[in-house]
Structure formats: structure tokens, C-alpha cells
């Protein structure tokens, strides 16, 4: 029962479940029916469920049938209508198909056009995108093209700027393109190329500057010369209200543009064409000849590239090398002025360029570097000038060299370089110049003295007289009163020598110009040089003439007269120097001219030469003396040689009328003394071993002739017997022997007023011995004649007494 109840309960439960499943199937979407059916198949009541399902289907079919039956007529109507619609639809379909066919046929071209339009729109869109991209890339390409053009035209600094813009501004915008990557990779190479090319331009510039430094320097020195000439004109003709520019403002017309867009200026690396500029009235500025743009470009390029220090070191190193080359003088520089000029032009050109670089760049060169170079240049230049100027023997070349050095110094001083050492060196060259002048004037004086006729200058007209007086300061009232023709007392070498001394002073003055010396220093220099000319050069020339072997007494007399007049002219030379230097001779420390001493010394030398010459002439006449010392005969007249000698002396002393009285008297006295001494030596010479009284008497006649000449007063100014005293020794000696007055001599010997005071016992004994030997040898029979024997004894006695006097005198 219970089992039945339980089965009944389970059957109800199953039925309920199946009902639920059926409802769920009916109400659930077919997509989700799977789990429901699965639950049926998972259960054990599958058959019962199928039965219920069949039952439910039949129920639904009956309901559908009922519904269909209810709606059948409507359905039939609908089918009928549908069939009608179907026919109409078929017609419509046919019409649509026909219309479609027509439309397809008619729209085929439109489709083609639409396809073309589509492609065109696509292309247009692509073109627009391409244009946009190209507009983005075009500036890059334009900049790159511009860069290439700038590189091609060697505008390297603008190219570097373009490269910076390209790298930092344009390329980042199109960095994803391959060509941009190529450009980016090429930028370092372009920088190096710019760097190398700019350095190459700099090297070309440096080489060009080195080659053309002399042209730059020549132009700068021409400017300095023009400015100096202008200054001289302004000083001579001062203009009211005129304003002088500074020399540097006048000289320098710099082209300070660092960068030029002109292809020509970019390509130039040094000197511009100035061949036709020498014909212009104005000399172009030294810096106008130079295009400095390579330096500026290279400096800026290296600065931008961060290698400025490298560039500065390279530039300074190269310029130092060039400075050493410029400062190396050619070996033959001293031969011509052009050698010195070219040397100076190169140095000036070098430092003009450096000065311009100093003032137009910031830090490429500095003042310390310039000063260092200048110190080196100054020392080397001075050493070279000292060496080469020492070879120069032409004073004109030395003077031209001095003017060139002054111009060189003035030019560099304009640019701010200290040149005091150059002027100090010019003072050294001044001494050398003085030496060369002295050598030149030595030749001039030698030619004047050699070509002179040593005769008074004849004057035949007033014109000639004034000409001579105009050349030499001479005044003589008595000579002016004399009628023409007349003669100046001096010969032609007096005005010539005087004028040459003035020319020498002018030459000295020329060297002192532009040396920035005071008037006192110039005056002192001229006076010292003139003193050297007088005391050394002219004095030596006069001495050489005076000492010549073939010089005659007439020439010597004329030299004495000439030097007397030149001595008087020294005061006019003093005035001449004072006038050209404006330094009064009374000024403290003023050097005095030694001309008076020079001419006095020359005159004294000429006087001594006259004395010597006279004595030599006397000796020449005495060599003609031919005494027969053994003769016993007397001619009762003086010897012929002596007569000729006296005649020569008379004619000679007649020429001495223009000499100062003391000179003529001294010459006459010297000649007489030398004649007396020579006659005494002739009498006492050892070769005359024997002489007779007759020969002694003949000799006495000659001495009397000499005494007669002395008494005749050949030269005025002597007191009565002064000239005769020259022969007093001979006279007393001859009187002693001829008069045989030994008793008086021996008795009065040693007394101040004795008759034979001038007779030396040694001389008397020497002559007595010669007469004693003669008595012994020539009188073979003297012992047989009493007088002869007595005379011989007397000679022996006198000789013995004389020896006693001599021995007592020595003791």
C-alpha cells in the first residue's frame, strides 16, 4: 500500500517535472533547449516523457487545426491574392530586370568615370599628402643646396652657419627620412671640409702675405714719407684753423668687413692688384692692398667649431716663422740701397699686417705677442744693420741708409712700435758716417793739394777778384787798391779747402736731420766731426804734401802762406756752424774748433821741412867742394861751389818775403848755422889727414864769403851781427891758426872775455895734428933748416899744452 502510495507520489512528481519541462520547451528559445532535453535523457522516465510529448504535440496539432479551420477562408483568400501578387511581382521583376539591364548599360560609362574619379581622388589625396611632406622637406633640401653653393663659392663661414641651422632646426623635423639620415651622417664631414678649406685659404693668405710684405711695407713707408712732407709744408706754411689728423688716421683705411658676399672677395687670399696705382696722386692705404677676409673667416669658423685656441696657436706659430724669414737679411744687402729698402719694406709690411690683425680681431694676437715679435725684430734688425753698414764705404749710401732707417722708424712709430733703439743705433752709424766722410774728404783734399800749382792766384778782372773773395773770406785793403792784374797771396787750394770744409759741415748736418736731436747736440756733433776733419784728415794731407820727396822750397813757402790764411779763416768757420745750428759759441760745453792748431802744426811742419830742405840743398852744394888740402897756392877768391851756394841762398831768401818775419829769420839762421857746422865738419873730417896753411887760407876765403853773405842781411829783421854769429866758431878757429896766436889763446883760455872763446882745445888740437903731420912728411929737409925745426918744435909745444888743457878740463 505504502509502496503504491510511494509509486503514486513518484508518478505525480514525474508528471509535474515533465510538465515543467514541456512548458520550458515551449517557452524557451531553441538555442537554449539543449540543457532541458539533457535533463530528460538523464532521467529514467524517458518513455513516459516521450508519451507526454506526443500527447502535447497532438494537442497542439488539434489547436492548430481548429485555428486553421477557423481562418481557412482568409488563408485561401490570401493565397489567391498572393498568387495574384506573384504574377504582378513577376512582371515587376521583369520590369526591374529590364530597367536594371538598361541602367547597367546606361551606367557603365558612369561607373568607369566614377572609377576614374575614385582613382583621381586617391591620387589627389596622395599628391596632397606628398606636397605636405615635400613642404616639410623642401626647406631642408633648400638649406642643403644653399650649403653646397656656399661651399662651392668658398663662403665657408656662411656655410657653417647654414649647416648649424640645417642640423638643429630643419633636420629634426624630417629625421625619419632616409636622405635626412644621409645628411646627418654627412654633417661632420662637411664641418671638417669647411675647416680644412678655410685652413687652406689661411695658408694661401699667409703665403701671399709673406711674398707681398715688401709691397705692403713700401706703401706704408710711402704714406709715412708723404705725411712727413705734408708736416714739413704745414710747419713752413702754417694755416690758421687747420686741423691735422693723427698720422695713423691718415695712414690707415681699413676694410674691416669680416664677411663679404662677393665671390671675388671670398676667393682673394692676400694682395689685390695695385700695379696701376703708382701713377695715382695719392698712395693707397697699406691695408687697402690686403684682403683679410680669409683670416676673419677662418677665425670665426674655428671659433664656431670650438677650436679657436688651435687656430690662434697655428697662426702665431706660422707668423713667427715668417718673421724669422723676413728678418733674415740677404748677404749682399749692403751693396745697394735697394737691398736695405726691400729688407725694411718686408719688416714694415709684416708688422703693418700684425697691427691690423691686432685691432680688427679679438684675441687672435695680443699686445704681448706683438711686443715679443717686435723685440725680436728690433734686436735682429739692429744686429743686421750694424753688420752690413760696417761694409759700406760710400758716405752717400750711408746717408741714404740713415734717411731710410729714419723713415722706417717713423713708419713703425705711427703704428705704436717703440723705435728708440733704432735712433740710438743711428748715432752709432753717425760715427761710421763720419769716418766714411773723412775718408772721402781725404781723397778730396789729396786731389786738391796734388793738383795745386802752389802759386799765388792771379787776378785779371774785378769779376774774378769778387769770385775768389766770395769763395774765401779775405780782406786786404792794400791789395784792393792795386791795379789789375794782381795776385792773391795764397794759392788756389786755400778757397778750395775752405769750401770743402763747409761742404763737409753740410754733409754732417744732413745726417743729423730727423734724428730728433737738440740744436746743441747737432752743433756738438758737427764740431767734433769737423775737428776730426781738421786735426786728422786735413792735417795728414798737409803733412803728406809737406813730407813729399820732390817738394820744393817754393811750394813749402806757399804752404806756409796758405795755412796762415786758413788759420785766420777758422773764426769764419765757427760763425758758419753757429749760423746753421743756432747755437752760440759761448754756450756751455760747446766744442771749439781746432783748426787754428791744425794749421799751426802744418805750418810748423812746413817750416821744419824748409829748414831741412835748405840744409839738404846746402849739403848738395858742399858735396861739390873739392879742396886741395895739400896746396900751398892761394887763389885769392872764394871757391866756385860756395859762390853758387851763396847765390842760391840769396835767391831763396828773396822768395821768403811773404813769409812771417820770424819764419824767414829762423830759416836763414838755420841755413847759416848748418853751413857753418858743415864747413867745420869738412875741415875736421877724419878723411882729411893733412892740410897746409895755404889750404887753410883758401878755406878762410870761403868762410869770409859766408860772413859777407851774413852781413848783407839776406832776410830783414836781424840785428847787426846776429847772423854772423853763426860762423863765429869757424872765424875764431881760422884766425887762431892763420895768425898763429897760440900765446894769446893759451894765456886767455877759460876767461869769459878771451879772444878765442869759441875755440875748443880738442878742435884746435885735431886741426893742429893735421898741420904737424904735414910739416913732418912734406918737408924732407926740415931738420936741416932752422926755421922749420923751430916751427915744428912750436907745434909740438902747442900740442902738448893743448893736451894739458884738455886733460885738466876733463878732470
UniProtKB/TrEMBL annotation:
Residues 421-770 form the Exocyst complex subunit EXOC6/Sec15 C-terminal domain. It comes from the Eukaryota. The keyword Membrane does not apply. Pfam families: EXOC6_Sec15_N, Sec15_C. Residues 82-109 form a coiled coil. Residues 260-280 are annotated as: Disordered. One of its GO terms (cellular component) is exocyst. GO terms for biological process: Golgi to plasma membrane transport; intracellular protein transport; vesicle tethering involved in exocytosis. Residues 52-221 form the Exocyst complex component EXOC6/Sec15 N-terminal domain. Component of the exocyst complex involved in the docking of exocytic vesicles with fusion sites on the plasma membrane. Belongs to the SEC15 family. PANTHER family: EXOCYST COMPLEX COMPONENT 6B, SEC15. This is Exocyst complex component. The lineage of its organism: Eukaryota, Metazoa, Chordata, Craniata, Vertebrata.
Amino acid at each position: 500500500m505504502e509502496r503504491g502510495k510511494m509509486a503514486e507520489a513518484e508518478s505525480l512528481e514525474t508528471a509535474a517535472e515533465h510538465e515543467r519541462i514541456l512548458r520550458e520547451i515551449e517557452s524557451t528559445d531553441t538555442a537554449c533547449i539543449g540543457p532541458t532535453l539533457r535533463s530528460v535523457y538523464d532521467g529514467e522516465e524517458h518513455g513516459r516523457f516521450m508519451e507526454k510529448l506526443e500527447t502535447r504535440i497532438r494537442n497542439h496539432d488539434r489547436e492548430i487545426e481548429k485555428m486553421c479551420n477557423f481562418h481557412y477562408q482568409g488563408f485561401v483568400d490570401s493565397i489567391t491574392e498572393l498568387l495574384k501578387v506573384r504574377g504582378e511581382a513577376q512582371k515587376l521583376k521583369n520590369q526591374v530586370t529590364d530597367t536594371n539591364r538598361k541602367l547597367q548599360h546606361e551606367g557603365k560609362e558612369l561607373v568607369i568615370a566614377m572609377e576614374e574619379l575614385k582613382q583621381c581622388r586617391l591620387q589627389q589625396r596622395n599628391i596632397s599628402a606628398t606636397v605636405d611632406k615635400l613642404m616639410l622637406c623642401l626647406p631642408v633640401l633648400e638649406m642643403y643646396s644653399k650649403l653646397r653653393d656656399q661651399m662651392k663659392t668658398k663662403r665657408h663661414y656662411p656655410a657653417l652657419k647654414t649647416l648649424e641651422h640645417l642640423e638643429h632646426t630643419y633636420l629634426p623635423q624630417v629625421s625619419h627620412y632616409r636622405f635626412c639620415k644621409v645628411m646627418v651622417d654627412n654633417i661632420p664631414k662637411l664641418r671638417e671640409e669647411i675647416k680644412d678649406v678655410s685652413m687652406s685659404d689661411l695658408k694661401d693668405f699667409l703665403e701671399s702675405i709673406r711674398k707681398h710684405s715688401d709691397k705692403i711695407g713700401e706703401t706704408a713707408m710711402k704714406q709715412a714719407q708723404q705725411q712727413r712732407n705734408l708736416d714739413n709744408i704745414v710747419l713752413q706754411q702754417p694755416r690758421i684753423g687747420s686741423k691735422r689728423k693723427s698720422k695713423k688716421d691718415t695712414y690707415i683705411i681699413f676694410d674691416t668687413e669680416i664677411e663679404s658676399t662677393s665671390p671675388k672677395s671670398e676667393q682673394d687670399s692676400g694682395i689685390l692688384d695695385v700695379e696701376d696705382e703708382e701713377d695715382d696722386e695719392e698712395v693707397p692705404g697699406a691695408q687697402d692692398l690686403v684682403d683679410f677676409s680669409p683670416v676673419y673667416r677662418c677665425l670665426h669658423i674655428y671659433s664656431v667649431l670650438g677650436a679657436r685656441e688651435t687656430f690662434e696657436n697655428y697662426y702665431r706659430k706660422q707668423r713667427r716663422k715668417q718673421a724669422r724669414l723676413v728678418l733674415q737679411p740677404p748677404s749682399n744687402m749692403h751693396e745697394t740701397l735697394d737691398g736695405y729698402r726691400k729688407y725694411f719694406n718686408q719688416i714694415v709690411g709684416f708688422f703693418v699686417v700684425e697691427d691690423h690683425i691686432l685691432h680688427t680681431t679679438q684675441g687672435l694676437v695680443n699686445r704681448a705677442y706683438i711686443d715679443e715679435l717686435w723685440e725680436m725684430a728690433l734686436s735682429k734688425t739692429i744686429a743686421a744693420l750694424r753688420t752690413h753698414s760696417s761694409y759700406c764705404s760710400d758716405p752717400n749710401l750711408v746717408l741714404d741708409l740713415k734717411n731710410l732707417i729714419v723713415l722706417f722708424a717713423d713708419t713703425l712709430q705711427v703704428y705704436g712700435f717703440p723705435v728708440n733703439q733704432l735712433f740710438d743705433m743711428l748715432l752709432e752709424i753717425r760715427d761710421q758716417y763720419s769716418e766714411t766722410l773723412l775718408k772721402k774728404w781725404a781723397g778730396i783734399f789729396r786731389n786738391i793739394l796734388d793738383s795745386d800749382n802752389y802759386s799765388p792766384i792771379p787776378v785779371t778782372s774785378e769779376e774774378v777778384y769778387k769770385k775768389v773773395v766770395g769763395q774765401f773770406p779775405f780782406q786786404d785793403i792794400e791789395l784792393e787798391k792795386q791795379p789789375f792784374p794782381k795776385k792773391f797771396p795764397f794759392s788756389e787750394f786755400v778757397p778750395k779747402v775752405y769750401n770743402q770744409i763747409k761742404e763737409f759741415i753740410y754733409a754732417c748736418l744732413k745726417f743729423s736731420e730727423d734724428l730728433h736731436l737738440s740744436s746743441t747736440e747737432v752743433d756738438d756733433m758737427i764740431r767734433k766731426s769737423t775737428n776730426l776733419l781738421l786735426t786728422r784728415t786735413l792735417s795728414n794731407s798737409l803733412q803728406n804734401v809737406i813730407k813729399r820727396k820732390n817738394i820744393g822750397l817754393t811750394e813749402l813757402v806757399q804752404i806756409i802762406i796758405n795755412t796762415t790764411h786758413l788759420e785766420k779763416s777758422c773764426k769764419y768757420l765757427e760763425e758758419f756752424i753757429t749760423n746753421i745750428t743756432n747755437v752760440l759759441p759761448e754756450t756751455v760745453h760747446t766744442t771749439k774748433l781746432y783748426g787754428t792748431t791744425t794749421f799751426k802744426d802744418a805750418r810748423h811742419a812746413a817750416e821744419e821741412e824748409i829748414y831741412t830742405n835748405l840744409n839738404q840743398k846746402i849739403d848738395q852744394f858742399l858735396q861739390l867742394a873739392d879742396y886741395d888740402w895739400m896746396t900751398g897756392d892761394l887763389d885769392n877768391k872764394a871757391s866756385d861751389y860756395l859762390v853758387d851756394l851763396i847765390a842760391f841762398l840769396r835767391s831763396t831768401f828773396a822768395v821768403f818775403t811773404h813769409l812771417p818775419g820770424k819764419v824767414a829769420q829762423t830759416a836763414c839762421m838755420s841755413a847759416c848755422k848748418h853751413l857753418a857746422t858743415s864747413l867745420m865738419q869738412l875741415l875736421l873730417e877724419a878723411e882729411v889727414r893733412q892740410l897746409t896753411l895755404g889750404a887753410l887760407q883758401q878755406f878762410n876765403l870761403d868762410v869770409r864769403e859766408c860772413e859777407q853773405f851774413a852781413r848783407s842781411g839776406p832776410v830783414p829783421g836781424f840785428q847787426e851781427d846776429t847772423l854772423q854769429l853763426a860762423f863765429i866758431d869757424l872765424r875764431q878757429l881760422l884766425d887762431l891758426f892763420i895768425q898763429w896766436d897760440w900765446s894769446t889763446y893759451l894765456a886767455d883760455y877759460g876767461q869769459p872775455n878771451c879772444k878765442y872763446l869759441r875755440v875748443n882745445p880738442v878742435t884746435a888740437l885735431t886741426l893742429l895734428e893735421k898741420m904737424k903731420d904735414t910739416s913732418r912728411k912734406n918737408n924732407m929737409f926740415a931738420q936741416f933748416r932752422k926755421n922749420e925745426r923751430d916751427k915744428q918744435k912750436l907745434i909740438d909745444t902747442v900740442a902738448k899744452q893743448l893736451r894739458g888743457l884738455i886733460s885738466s878740463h876733463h878732470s
